[in-house]
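Running this now, will post back.
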Amino acid sequence: MQKLDREGPLTLTYQLTEILRERIANFYDPGALLPSEKELVQEFNVSNITVRNALENLVIEGIVTRKRGKGTFVSEKKISSNITRLQSGTQLFQESGMTSHVELLEAVKVKANLPTATQFGLPEGALFNTLTRRRMLDAVPYSLETSYIPQEICPDISDRYQGGSLYEFLEKQYGIFMTRSEEIYTAVALHSKQAKLLHQERGAAALLLRGRVYDQNDRLVAVEESLYRSDKFEIVVQANSSLPRPTKLIEPNSGGNYG
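Update: finished.
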């Protein structure tokens, strides 16, 4: 049994958080119920506050979820998106070892408002294909995705597309290969209709992606809006320093030379 170091510099809350994190990673499956607060208090001989704070740390990190009257459960694995490269939703799930299913909720032609049309250099009222999908995994909805594609680029896509990977459909049917995107992510609260489609409570947190996607000729093909459940999705960012690396180590001054 792992023990807490009561004489060291690390707080009991920090130590307990790390012990529970390691246990979850090695011994618990997603959805598994953790021992109760009372059981953890008895096992580690700590206060209720220490146990509660350690569990809250894991909740904040998304490792566990707490359900009133039921206990603390290991969170389901999240889908991780690396925003340094363009991926379709289907590719994103495949790289996470999962197979998703895309439901087509709506495929219609609409007249674009001025902000949307202007992005494509088209006049207000130009016809656009609007494709709204819901991405599912084992009957659980993960995201709502809407794409706006000009009629002049894909005249009949709203009649032909029936679901599945939109990017693959564009490649096979129109010879359009999506090569880059510009994306903005915003934290939002779901309104009633969105929450119902995503099996969430109204006001639940979600991640909104607004994007512009370009093809192999650097032509803007689609404007997209996607809503992702915050309990199922996370963003991974790889950052490098903009400062140049030193070409050699700088030796510290020695002796009395401080000039």
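The helical segments are 12-27, 37-44, 48-60, 89-95, 114-119, 157-160, 166-174, 192-197. More later if anyone needs it.
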